[in-house]
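**Discrete fold encoding**
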Amino acid sequence: MESFEIVNCGPYRFIGKAMFVRAGKSDALCGALFEKYSDWVFETLDGMKEYASDAPHNAAFLDWSRYDQKNGLMGYTIGRFMKADTPVPEDMDYIDIPAGFIAKVFIEGDVEGDVTGDACKMLRDEIKRLDIYRPSRKLWWSAEIYPKPDENGVSHIGYYESYELKGRKGNWLKRKQK
């Protein structure tokens, strides 16, 4: 793990190209969406610099709002976290994300193998260790983050998830950290 943090940020508008697929059985479909639309999506969003947010990396947003045991649907959107007031380009989809806590982890590696799964496990292990956050009830989501390789050509992968504090608002966190 290169870095781990939990930040209170947003709101955002995640903009890109979306589909709903069965979770765990859709790698080929998600890969096809990324392959077919990523150039168009990221070039379009690159042209909207005035709406870029503090989370500038290419990403795959996983929306669990339609997930249930029967259908197992997961939303998969390739795109970026943009400012909340960003106009949505024609033929693109969006998800409005309320302000809240986002857990972020980055590790060295590329998309080959299960490095995204490794990042997810590291993030959840840290959340469990802290024991003051729970998955967000407003909108639970996760995102695979794909920064450009660094100046030495080394690839990195990130993973984000939405969380909220356990217990009462921020006071509990302040007492716990003292």
